[in-house]
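Lab notebook, entry 237. We have the chain sequence and a SMILES string for adenosine-5'-triphosphate, and the next step in the workflow is to get a structural model of the bound complex before anyone spends time on docking refinements. Request logged below.

Task: model protein plus adenosine-5'-triphosphate, output structure tokens.
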Amino acid sequence: MNCIELRNVVKRYGNVTALNNVSFAIECGERVALLGPNGAGKSTTLKLIVGLLKPDSGEVLVKGLEPISIQARRIIGYLPEDASPYLMLTVRENLEYIASLRGVDNVKERVNKFLELLALKPYERNRVMSLSRGNRQKLSLALALIHDPEILLLDEPLNYLDIPTQERIISLFNSMTNATILVSTHIMSIAGRLANKVIILSGGQVVWQGNISDLRKFGEENEPVESIVARLMESVR
Ligand SMILES: Nc1ncnc2c1ncn2[C@@H]1O[C@H](COP(=O)(O)OP(=O)(O)OP(=O)(O)O)[C@@H](O)[C@H]1O
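Result returned:
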């Protein structure tokens, strides 16, 4: 079954065409990296899937449902590119509030688990406005995961994180074996550790999609995968 599907999607902002006839399908349980140069349309794609934007034409489906349906919203966890938790609330209050809104059972237990998991326990009583950018990012990740979503949409999830935390988060994602993950990133090594497939966008169009291991077929012997991806991205700019 497809957990995410875009069919001939066009999205414009005024006279800028951000996505121009984009189609792809992601099966439930797949892990896919969304790659593309700046302005390619990656964040726009994620916002359409989470229902924050509507396509001008074409269709976006989450398990066959409209992204704004209650059933779809329940199963999606979304980390925006510049996530901003409630600045005046503490770390714990943010987590408890979102967990309650999400209908999580045993809110306290679940919040404690994420405070531990993301090393946020020392900051649980601090207001978000006083946190470092990295700790805000950890909280934003916890907020995206608190309801154990089936589908994870992650926009540059490792931004601002120190190396030990990056490793912890990668293990956490990799332990979520049943989840469907679509992750936007500029870092090829991160794509390779979080996903086995890629969708490459450029100029609002899909220029390539397939298994990461198949990317090598487009390169010279020993050519770094980053260089192959860069060529594919530039083929349509
Ligand atoms: N709110 C907006 N208003 C007008 N234009 C927008 C808006 N958001 C995005 N765009 C434009 O749409 C295009 C796609 O932007 P988008 O943010 O989806 O790209 P991206 O691939 O996520 O880029 P980056 O890697 O730089 O974050 C760009 O040309 C961008 O300038």
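Notes for the group: Strands lie at 2-13, 16-27, 31-35, 57-62, 76-79, 151-155, 180-184, 197-202, 205-211. Worth checking against the assay data. Residues 13, 16, 18, 36, 38-44 surround adenosine-5'-triphosphate (CB under 6 Å).
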